Fold this sequence. Notes:
There is one protein chain. By secondary structure, the chain is α+β, with helices and mostly antiparallel strands. The protein folds into three domains: 2-88 and 173-239, 2-Layer Sandwich (Gyrase A, domain 2), CATH 3.30.1360.170; 104-172 and 356-417, no CATH class; 268-334 and 419-494, no CATH class. It has 20 helices and eight strands. It has helices at residues 10-20, 34-46, 67-74, 104-139, 148-166, 184-192, 200-217, 220-223, 247-258, 272-284, 293-301, 338-344, 357-360, 371-374, 377-399, 404-407, 425-435, 442-458, 460-463, 469-473; strands at 2-5, 57-66, 81-84, 175-183, 263-268, 329-337, 352-353, 416-424.
Amino acid sequence: MTLRSAPAAPFDGAIAAARTCYSPRVVGAHEVTDRQRDSIGALTFDAGHHTVYQHAHFEFGLENVSRQFVWTFLHSHPFYNSEQSSQRYVKLREPRAFVPPLAGEALRVYEDAIVRAWDRYAELGDYLKADALTILKELRYVRPTTAAARMQQVEREAEKKAIETARYVIPIAAFTSMVHTVSGIVLHRLRRMVNSGDAPLETRAVVNEMVRLVTDLDPLFFEKVGPAPLQPGEIPETAFPRPRADAAMFATRFDARLGTRVSRLRDASPDAEAVVADAVRAVFGLLPEDMSDDEAVARVMDPARNPYRLDVLNVSHHSPLMRALHHAHYVFEKRLSHTADSQDQRHRMVPASRPLMLFADAAEPDFVTPRLIARNPRAAAVYQAAMREAWDAKNRLLALDVPLEFALYVLPNATALRFVESGSLLALLHKWTLRTCFNAQEEIYLASMDEIEQVGALHPRIGRHLGPPCVIRNGLVSPRCTEGTHFCGVPVWRDFPAAVRRL
């Protein structure tokens, strides 16, 4: 852990911001006195006036933290920014993973499971690269006369596609690295909630180090304000029963509701189109006889009439017109793998009620299989074996009285997660535009396609304007594709949504 950047005096900066509220000028941090630190600090914090602690931002460099910790805690809320090493594009050449405090047979079982998963990852990568290369040669129009440099580029792309899929067998204990930035008030909240989530031991280690680094910089930031961390017995989630015996039944019933879908529309604003139209008219002081519902919805949704839809810098939340989309809301039930959901949760304006794995553990393998693996018999056999091995290791650790918190770490990225997710049309519109692109992660792409299909059937005036950038931009602005040299190779705009995604 490193503290890459931070304000020189974050606590005094907060007090100065509070004083500015009652001053005709901006108060500087250098003007803060000891008396003000004692009086204003506690007064603002204890009264809930926390925005003054949001001005200070702390940029951390994190290495050797697990994917499980990041998913269950660090990225489980919307108030952060991260740039994280990608398993989709960075080959994992050696086993590097979190190891909890175990000994004897339990430690051997745990470490063997980690190493075995890496071996399976290497096997799958070899099998899948040939399949990916065959498809990419067609998509990239590779011919016997293709230049060697171009062929090498396609081969590198095929390897990336192979490891992107092979990573599903990697355990959620796998290490990752990132640059992670939070505000001062969020750091206080992380400290308060340090015993929550599925990985409290690792969470305490990481957050305590964050707090130590900030305290070394400015001892007053935690000394003067802020409550102590909630203890396990004080966290409401710990009072719920852990129905391990019923986890399989929950999964069965949830999947029955999904049917063949990855994501199912659970609820929606019934008059979404009329509500959006009313909101558009409210912005401009118009009556229905001045602007019909059809016209109002088209003005905000149709990229031919609303150039904000074509802007690669998402300014939707800053546009008075686009904010009319806040008032239509959609709720989905969905099933994603742990690795796909780790990416899906980065859409922070589309929150979800994600499972606590400590409560949803099942004895039998429960996982998602990527299509590239399912189509290759040899890869599928390796994959099935890897899933069985992971769950056998987890169950063996439990039989050795290892806490479930630690045993869960050996489960694979493929582990299935079931949850409820919702968002405003404004937030979902941005997500759907990015994630219906053929370059999007496969599961999130499939979920997004499910979602826009169901929304379009319910609200056709909205649905007809949903799709990836190349569809939205087609005929209006150049280039159609915003991916540059990463163009998928398929003219999706000619036949959306029927265009077939082969990778």
